[in-house]
Design goal:
Distance between the termini of chain A: 49 Å
Largest interface: A-B, 108 and 111 residues
CATH class of the largest domain in chain B: Alpha Beta
CATH class of the largest domain in chain A: Alpha Beta
Distance between the termini of chain B: 60 Å
Number of strands of chain B: 14
Structural class of chain A: alpha+beta
Low-confidence stretches of chain B: 1-50, 288-294, 532-540
Strand content of chain A: 15-25%
CATH topology of the largest domain in chain A: Cytochrome Bc1 Complex, Chain A, domain 1
CATH architecture of the largest domain in chain B: 2-Layer Sandwich
Structural class of chain B: alpha+beta
Helix content of chain B: 40-55%
Order of helices and strands of chain A: HEEEHHEEHHHHHEHEEHHEEHHHHHEH
Mean pLDDT of chain A: 90
Shape of chain A: globular
Number of helices of chain B: 22
CATH superfamily of the largest domain in chain A: Metalloenzyme, LuxS/M16 peptidase-like
Number of helices of chain A: 17
Oligomer: heterodimer
Strand content of chain B: 15-25%
Strand order of the largest sheet of chain B: 1-2-8-3-7-6
CATH architecture of the largest domain in chain A: 2-Layer Sandwich
Number of domains of chain A: 2
Shape of chain B: globular
Low-confidence stretches of chain A: 1-38
Mean pLDDT of chain B: 87
Radius of gyration of chain B: 27 Å
Number of domains of chain B: 3
Number of strands of chain A: 11
Strand order of the largest sheet of chain A: 1-2-6-3-5-4
Chain lengths: 472, 540
């Protein structure tokens, strides 16, 4: 299951929530009625152009729509020192036009013809997608090919300056003016050393964003935006042969700037905390919140699915361990959640507890620690595991419905495991987990004292006043 | 197949500068389009041969490909039937994946009951039903991997359940318990009230949640539409079990409900399953009481009169409302006014107008505030239409220091879209966006169910969306301007700003007159005392 943290260029306008869009998968016409979920697949044809571009065509002619998804194998983890936020800022610049398709025209061309687009950047990848009626296919390919080949030629300091402003506004909207944003900004630097590829946020530090030059952007483009570093997915109401011809026509001529490297699993870069890292911070929040975070197995490696299932057993449903204890029985928490944030080099498992007013955060932390200790003391019950698995079975099938989700899933599988034909195998990671395997992996992760603990407390009235004074 | 250089279609759609570098026949043999080059040569036979770009990009890349003609999407019609005991069912078959979704719509929402009662009732449905307590019900839903969601609106409550095909029977059994036999246990009611109260408390710190709450409150005042769906903690705690039981008895009856079904199930199978689980569902109260409760509130025909002749219509300047959030890095804005409800507005020109104004990335507001001025991460505008009335609103969050210029720019944009008709290119874009977005809902069972329950909520005919597609195609720039003039009257706008008032209050009050100060729950607050330090700050 993938979960890239979404930072999208135009999400705000459309109100699209990208985070947790669902586990990967898809089926086209190939998935028949009544087949077991394990037979799920997204029928497709895959080929590689001589310049290294991986092309995947998923034909599904039931709805008169197409999706073009272009994934680049670059994310925040590829950023160099003092340039955090570069990958995401560059994602914004990809919409700022080329010599042939000048500023604003990428969006206008699509929207005038009933289509739309968006993109997001995670630690590991940057993904662009275009959606529209079937007749848009050739137009979308032309636009994507043009910017893959020539974006940097038309990149100016003015365009950079404008998108830097937009990104700083995005940072305000998504973190600085949002409750608990402070903790979310601090988490990467508490979990990882500054030199680790995950040691900074995807959105980036303000000083770094302000330091980026047009030259940096051009170099970044030259290094990472190459056909050999990208996957193109064409999905929807299209004939396979025609899609292949169009992909070849529009992308085949683009020079291969960098040699094609192998797609597939990245080499994990384990991070370990020698001891517990604790922080207390004040923020403009109404209720206190506790974060606990651990390093966990990388995406698509042994233990990754078990930690997803562990998250469900801890906080999904009223019988889940932490919900039952903290929210239902003791009523000290307003809500609890847990998640395995799966990433290529190493994942992060986070438990988040929002307290009820009047509850003592130290006491709540103690209760959380005790429940987690109970959970890893012996294997979960068969019923517990069955309930968690059932959620994933439904979620996989549900995520096969949307054409965009299927296109994206094919691209993400290609990036994560080097093959697109992976839905059934991905689901099997969940269905084949056992109480013993969950126990083993949950204990290895949650049993570690190397963890980050953050207490977020409401600003005291006194602090607020002091801040007011300081500002004036 | 068409030639790569005949940009006829695109050119008419795009009165924009797109460099036509030339029309060289396609030399890319890998293109596997044997007739493409020939067709291109024919079209441009008399023109000079193009050059290959200096940047090494093939000439065919210089021009946008020609698009095939647009088609009108084919939208499915639901089948409608009634169960013997009275429940109306709408059904769309979708057999490609083993999924079925049920959406039970109750045509009663938070505005149909005392504050908090409908919200608490709806949420209590999942806190124990039939022979299962809260914990057992949660476990039973999880065991079959069911996806349960309860949506609560001003005019409706909708309970949706999505399951794999093999769990349809078990799922329906649980859904019928949830809808017909909730337990409303007092201890669970207390638990729920505490959780909801905590949620309402945490909302106070979220400016993006406070802004719409206050905006509704100011626009609708004492009307039930002005009360937040999830009310304040104190109101939530005051909801009595007896009120919950009574609301459930009156509102949750087959007469005020519609069940929409989409997915991998045939009609015979559906009828059998529904007969088992919903066949005996009847109104519980007295017949008279049930019928009265079942009658949806009337459309408010007075809304338009009110906006033309009422007190609000006499206003000459926009009304300012501030919620103070000291130190906030952004100001969250809502700017708009009331409008008639869903059944009274002409939907097509209204939606088209707001598409152009703030309904997509290339809309006027987003382009201006985000891409030209760099004030925001995004700006949008749309109409929210309820049964009796609605509202139109511009929504954005802007950097604190540009609060005033951003509001001035928004007002300028609103004035501009009233004063002159939108361009032909904009009108065409809006029509295509609205029409071409319609098939997206066919991809998922939730999209199909949602479309049906929306039509049912407003008592619209089964083919209303097909008609709407036709209406969209016919909307003109003049239609849109007429809507702009009726629905965006600058003197009647309300401007809500949630942010650090010390930085913008004086400037905005100078422009628009004195502001009203409200708290994060919409409660009246005294004006903050003028601080000497604030004065010393002076002009920018």
């Amino acid at each position: 299951m993938r979960r890239s943290v979404a930072i999208a260029a135009s999400v705000a306008v459309l109100g699209v929530a990208l985070v947790g869009a669902g586990p990967g998968t898809g089926s086209g016409s190939g998935t028949g009625t009544g087949k077991p979920a394990s037979a799920l697949r997204i029928p497709h044809t895959r080929f590689r152009l001589p310049n290294g571009l991986e092309v995947i065509v998923h034909a599904d002619r039931r709805v008169p729509r197409v999706v073009v998804d272009v994934l680049y194998r670059v994310g925040a983890r590829f950023e160099r020192a003092k340039r955090s936020g570069m990958a995401h800022l560059f994602e914004h610049l990809m919409f700022m036009g080329t010599k042939r398709i000048p500023e604003k025209q990428i969006d206008l061309l699509m929207e005038r013809n009933g289509g739309w687009n968006n993109a997001y950047t995670s630690e590991d990848v940057t993904n662009y997608y275009d959606v529209g009626p079937s007749r848009l296919l050739e137009l979308l390919l032309w636009i994507e090919a043009d910017r893959m080949a020539t974006l940097a030629h038309a990149l100016t300091p003015k365009k950079l300056g404008l998108q830097r402003k937009v990104v700083l506004n995005e940072r305000r909207q998504s973190y600085e003016n949002r409750p608990y944003g402070k903790a979310r900004l601090a988490m990467p630097s508490l979990l990882f050393a500054p030199s680790h590829p995950y040691g900074h946020t995807v959105i980036g530090d303000v000083a770094d964003l302000e330091a980026v030059t047009a030259g940096d952007c051009k170099a970044f483009f030259g290094r990472y935006y190459a056909p050999s570093n990208a996957v193109l997915v064409i999905a929807g109401d299209v004939d396979v042969a025609k899609a292949r011809a169009l992909a070849t026509r529009y992308f085949g001529w683009i020079p291969s700037k960098v040699p094609a490297s192998r797609w597939g699993r990245a080499k994990p870069q384990p991070a370990k905390l020698a001891k517990e890292v604790r922080r207390e911070m004040r923020d403009r929040v109404a209720l206190p919140r506790l974060y606990m975070a651990w390093h966990s197995p990388p995406h698509q490696t042994p233990g990754d699915a078990e930690l997803d299932l562990t998250a469900a057993m801890l906080t999904t449903g009223k019988l889940s361990r932490l919900y039952r204890e903290l929210v239902y029985t003791r009523r000290v928490a307003a809500s609890v959640s847990a998640r395995q944030d799966s990433r290529a080099l190493g994942s992060v498992f986070t438990v988040t507890v929002t307290l009820r007013r009047g509850a003592d955060i130290k006491q709540v932390e103690k209760l959380v620690r005790r429940e987690i200790a109970r959970f890893i003391q012996k294997p979960p019950s068969a019923d517990e595991l069955a309930r968690a698995k059932a959620q994933y079975q439904t979620a996989f099938v549900r995520s096969l419905q949307s054409l965009r989700s299927r296109a994206e899933t094919l691209a993400l599988y290609m990036a994560a495991v080097g093959r697109a034909d992976y839905v059934a195998k991905d689901l099997r990671r969940y269905t084949s987990a056992t109480t013993a395997s969950v126990h083993k992996h949950a204990r290895a992760v949650l049993g570690s004292l190397g963890r980050v603990v953050i207490h977020v407390l409401p600003e005291s009235p006194a602090a607020k006043k002091a801040q007011q004074k300081g500002k004036k | 197949m068409r030639g790569v250089c005949s940009r006829l279609c695109v050119a008419t759609l795009l009165p924009l500068v797109l460099v036509c570098g030339g029309c060289k026949p396609d030399k890319n043999k890998a293109a596997a389009k044997p007739d493409a080059g020939a067709a291109a040569s024919k079209v441009r036979a008399t023109k000079p041969k193009p050059k290959v770009g200096a940047d090494g990009v093939p000439a065919f890349m210089d021009n946008a490909p020609t698009l095939p003609a647009a088609k009108t999407p084919d939208l499915p019609l639901a089948k409608r039937f009634k169960l013997p005991a009275g429940l109306e069912v709408r059904y769309i078959e979708k057999r490609d994946l083993p999924l079925v979704r049920f959406g039970l719509l109750i045509k009663r929402g938070t505005a149909s009951a005392a504050p908090g009662v409908a919200y608490v009732t709806a949420k209590m449905l999942a806190e124990g039903a039939g022979k299962r307590g809260a914990l057992d019900l949660s476990a039973a839903l999880q065991q079959i991997g069911a996806e349960l969601s309860i949506s609560i609106g001003l005019d409706f409550i909708e309970i949706d359940l999505e399951v794999l095909k093999r769990h349809v029977d078990a799922g329906l059994s649980l859904l019928s318990d949830i809808v017909q036999r909730p337990r409303f246990e007092p201890t669970e009611l207390r638990r729920l009230a505490q959780r909801l109260a905590a949620r309402a408390q945490s909302r106070r710190a979220r400016a993006t949640a406070v802004a719409p709450l206050v905006f509704h409150k100011v626009l609708f005042g004492e009307d039930p539409y002005g009360i937040p769906r999830l009310p304040t903690p104190a109101v939530i705690r005051s909801v009595k079990r007896a009120a919950v039981v009574a609301f459930h008895r009156d509102a949750f009856t087959p007469d005020s409900a519609v069940l929409a079904v989409a997915g991998d199930i045939d009609r015979a199978g559906l009828v059998t399953a529904l007969g088992t689980h919903f066949g005996s569902w009847k109104a519980q109260g007295s017949k008279k009481q049930g019928a009265a409760a079942a009658k949806p509130p009337a459309d408010d025909k007075r809304e338009d009169k009110r906006s033309k002749k009422g007190k609000a219509a006499q206003a000459k300047a926009p009304r300012l409302v501030f919620v103070d959030k000291p130190g906030a890095p952004q100001s969250v804005l809502r700017i708009g006014m009331r409008c008639p409800g869903r059944r009274s507005v002409k939907l097509a020109p209204l939606r088209a107008l707001f598409k152009v104004l703030g309904g997509s990335f290339t809309s006027r507001l987003n382009q201006s505030l985000r891409e030209t001025h760099g004030y925001t991460y995004g700006a949008s505008a749309s109409a929210s239409l309820y049964r009796r009335a609605g509202l139109v609103a511009v929504r954005t969050s802007v950097k604190t220091s540009v609060t005033e210029p951003a509001i001035v720019e928004i007002m300028k944009q609103l004035e501009a879209i009233r004063d002159a008709p939108v361009t032909p290119a904009e009108a065409n874009k809006a029509r295509r966006q609205l029409i071409d977005a319609m098939p997206a809902r066919l991809e998922s069972v939730s999209g199909l169910v949602d479309a049906q329950t929306t039509l049912a909520l407003y008592d619209l005919p089964l083919d209303a969306d097909r008609r709407l597609a036709t209406e969209y195609a016919a909307v003109s720039a003049a239609d849109m301007q007429a809507v702009a003039r009726a629905r965006l009257r600058l003197g009647q706008l309300t401007i809500v700003v949630v942010g650090d008032t010390s930085t913008f209050a004086k400037k905005l009050e100078k422009r628009y007159g004195p502001a009203t100060y409200l708290g994060p729950d919409g409660e009246a607050l005294p004006r903050p005392k003028a601080k000497p330090a604030g004065k010393a700050k002076g002009k920018r």
